[in-house]
Amino acid sequence: MTDDPAKPSGGGPVFFLSYARPSVSERVQGDPDRDFAAFYYDLCAALTRFAPLDRLHSLGAVSGEWNAPAGSGATDPAKDIAECDVFVPLHQERYFQNEQCGKELAAFEARVRLAGTPRADAILPVLWAPVPPQWAAAQPAPYRTGQADVDDEYLDKGLFWLQGAYPARYRQVVEGLARRVAEIAAGRTVGRVAAADLAHVQSSLRQADRQPLVVVLLAPTLHRPREAAGRQFGPAITDWAPFSAETSRPLADILVGLARDKGWEPQVVPFSTEDARLFGETEPDSQVVLVVNPLVVDDDIWRAALQRFDRIDKPWIGVVVAWDPAGVPDAELHRLRAELQRVLDRKFARRSPSLRINAPIATSLQSFDLALDATANHTRIQLANHLLSPASDPAEEENHT
């Protein structure tokens, strides 16, 4: 390298890893950077298989926030950002709230803009942990392996979760990422520049507008079915208060606050057989979550409507089941669960393993909050997949009822 840190050396790192260091409170317990460091070294090791021999002396560099040991790659972040070929931000909620990360990203984005033939793929995000949609929507989509079973878990739970829970799939993501980093670096997509003064760079991380989320409610009213009369129900579907033991407020009111806390801008509507979002053939413009009370399967009209809905292949519409089973005999609980899964076979019974774990039937306000969040984020991924590679118009399967 040259003695002047402001000038490009011609031998910069293949990639620069940008991440937000854990908070002070988290630093008290053990090594707060251990998991990030493990990923960094794993990526470097995997990259040795794909990078040219003349690049092996400088594979990676890492954010200056990492208080790493000597020789680990934690050098001058401004110089490394000015000379690296690929910028790898680790997306998690903390990343989008970190001023230093925003400055690092802005410095590399400036290089992309100055490139003769700008290539946005020189910024290759990795989803470290799930992030609220208002931040994710404003950034490049996270790296994907192209293997559906791996990507479903990785994009739903994040690479950090895979690192501990499924090491084999974690290694698949890391190896694929290393291959992609090498491909981008080989193309020299952005030119090297003089190091920026990060202290005076304006962060490019700004909270984006909230993403729209339509929540459709389907529950009995006082008159449908007859057994539904009680404090949980009212004249309209939106009067439904499934967790009346905890609060008398209708779910339609409560979930607005829950969704907004997660970064969504929710619109709550009652179920209708005329709703084009559920039954039409137009392209979707937002994620949709249908929240269902199991008692509706005993009503012939709603049951038929749900069966029709389930036959239509719209993966960007998720289903959350919510109710308070207090006082309901076990035999009745089992019957309703079986009937609901029979009626919503595609949408509920055949959900992904991650949703089966994270979005079971919600029987409390807390479990509903978790189920709504998990389902909304899953539908966000499904909608993104559909918009990236739209298939033919949604069609109904035959002979499924």
UniProtKB/TrEMBL annotation:
InterPro entries: FxsC_C (IPR026367). NCBIfam families: FxsC_Cterm (TIGR04276). This is TIR domain-containing protein. It comes from Catenulispora pinistramenti.
